[in-house]
Amino acid sequence: MIPLSAFTVFLGCVSALAAPASQPVTSLSDALVSKVKTNMKQIATHSWEIGTALEALTEFEWPSLSVFGGSLPPPVKLHSGEAADVIQWATQIVKAKDPNALPLIDGDGAVGDPASIGTAVLLTNWTRTDRSDHEFSTAAGHQLKYLLDVAPRTSDGAISHRADQVQLWADFVYMAPPFIAYYGALKGGSGGLSLLKIAYKQCKLYRQYLRDSSGLWQHIVLGIGQDHNHWATGNAWAAAGMLRVLEAIHHSKLASQMKNEQTDLKSWINEIVSASWNHQHSNGTLYNYIDQSTSFADSSSTALLASVTYRMATLTSDNSHIPAANKAYNLIKSSVDSNGWLRNTVDPETFNTPSKPGEHSPEGQAFVILLQSAYRDYHQALASRK
Ligand SMILES: *[C@@H]1O[C@H](CO)[C@@H](O)[C@H](O)[C@H]1NC(C)=O
Ligand SMILES: *[C@@H]1O[C@H](CO)[C@@H](O)[C@H](O)[C@H]1NC(C)=O
Predict the structure, then answer these.
(1) Where are the domains of the chain?
(2) Going by CA atoms, what residue is nearest to atom 9 of ligand 1?
(3) Does residue 378 contact residue 313 with C-beta atoms inside 8 Å?
(4) Which of 73, 126, 206, 384 is the most exposed place for a label (fewest CB within 10 A)?
(5) Using a 6 Å cutoff on CB, does residue 143 contact ligand 1?
(6) Could you say which residues form the signal peptide (predicted)?
């Protein structure tokens, strides 16, 4: 018989080799993730919540069609039933669209938020069975036109997140640049290249305005109603948005023409990831205002930032932030109740108070699905590298 102590040491060595990734993490159960997803679909009503939910469904259920999954453009012809829920939801939105408005849906005064639905509309157009139907292409084109030609901007070209004044929000980076980049990756050629460059440029400009010497991003600058705090969800939106732009470039036919841009995006994402996890609390959570000890624990941003961390490790093979992601994953696991609701979220409409008892965060539900997708893909990549 092997003495227990020797056996433990032996096991320790093996797991250190196999997974530089530290403490063991077991997955959320499929049944629970399924409840989280059902709840997400049920409570997503605002434009950005729908856009984020559509992205979460795509990454989770149809990974090969997401920007993380494979080469762009996607196939023209889908298998029967493939992406059916995403296409159905996007179709419903385009059918309900005000024909006289350029944005895809009402955005509650936001420029960027309706564009978050655009990726799913582009996918719907690209894969449609009735090739004579141009409704989706036109709707996506109008949304792009609104962003590029109509929305207010700063003098140096950053597109405002608000329609009625020039104001920049970290949130914008998840809403509009990934749509512009995906549009470019599908279009290809010189027109596609210029769209990919616009998406990159918006990330660059937003970082110039919002990032400060802490390495973290402020939430809202310029105009009336600024928020200079380092809002955790804002930082996670920015990192996750830049990551989708990076992946759209990376998987497009134009990747070799945008090497420096990809290097920049990676370093800007890492900057947020490193600066944020520096303030991670011992149970894995981030605080709502990341670096303020009087703030409160927020599971939403913790989930989204952990998803970015797993995805970056998958992309770069740099596992240095995986221990933080694993801690965060464990926290999220213990924060999802048996009915599939994420607890301990920030109220996504006040930004600075916890969700009221009995209320849930639509974006928080989506972040759990994004996290689960990133966690799964990270472990798949680890297994295939062995
Ligand atoms: C819609 O799909 C067609 C291919 O069927 C493509 O030529 C067109 O560029 C697409 N529209 C957009 C906005 O991507
Ligand atoms: C995690 O720790 C923080 C204090 O650092 C606490 O406020 C929060 O309630 C904890 N979260 C959970 C789910 O235990």
Answers:
(1) 4-384
(2) 187
(3) yes
(4) 384
(5) no
(6) 1-18
d(CA 279, CA 327): 13
CB 321, CB 278: distance < 8 Å: no
Question: Which residue has 């024909």 as its token pair?
Answer: 99
Q: What is the pLDDT of residues 120-132, one digit of tens each?
A: 999 999 999 999 9
Residue 152 has a pLDDT of 98
* Residue 370 CB contacts under 8 Å (≥ 6 apart), including other chains: 52, 55, 56, 59, 60, 240, 303, 304, 307
Question: pLDDT, tens digit, for every residue of 24-71?
Answer: 689 999 999 999 999 999 999 999 999 999 999 999 999 999 999 989
- Angle (CA) 337-308-111 rounded to 5° is 95
CATH, range 4-384: 1.50.10.10
CA distance 280 to 79: 43
Residue 282: nearest ligand to its CA?
A: 2
pLDDT digits (tens, 9 = 90+) for 113-172: 999 999 999 999 999 999 999 999 999 999 999 999 999 999 999 999 999 999 999 999
Residue 168's DSSP bridge partners are: 221
Q: Which ligand is nearest to the CA of 145?
A: 1
Taking CA atoms only, the protein residue closest to ligand 2 atom 3 is 297
